[in-house]
């Protein structure tokens, strides 16, 4: 249980900003390694529109969400992303997703891992909002978020769980087993993020 150890914004992170953003993250990783100035960053994202978004605001929002996740994992993380196989790339993105939004770890522990322990084949469609509602008493700051925002966060969590392979689909929320690849495991252990390995496999 992580929620008692941090401020609500640190607990939720930028969860409303998007799911794993798989294709966008590869583009941002390449730019991030160039270490651009803020002016260069905005020019690449907005004027060059490398993410091919419909508005500058949308492009910047996605780009900044991804960059925050990269920063939280350290410089070597970005290099590892571009060197990784496709499956490891997605696993690393999911690790950064969990790391930047620790609420995801609690949700996985209390709903996915618990369902596996009880031999339940799936989680319910309202699992995320049930999880959030259980936290209002201990996290009254949640009331500052609208229900639509909290639901959007949940949609991003579910989409990410599908992308990494822990759920079958966004509609069919059947639990699936995944195994952290050796290249993913090596990076997480070397970056002092080994706790994310068991969480990713839902063994805690």
Task: Please give a handful of descriptors for the protein shown.
204 residues; mainly alpha; fold of a uncharacterized protein from magnetospirillum magneticum; 2 domains; globular
General description of the model:
By secondary structure, the chain is mainly alpha-helical. The protein folds into two domains: 21-83, no CATH class; 84-204, uncharacterized protein from magnetospirillum magneticum domain (fold of a uncharacterized protein from magnetospirillum magneticum, Orthogonal Bundle), CATH 1.10.3540.10. The protein is 60% helix and 0% strand. The chain has eleven helices and no strands. The protein has helices at 8-12, 22-32, 38-47, 56-73, 75-83, 86-100, 103-117, 127-133, 147-164, 182-190, 195-200. Helix 5 packs antiparallel against helix 6. The chain is globular, with a radius of gyration of 17 Å.
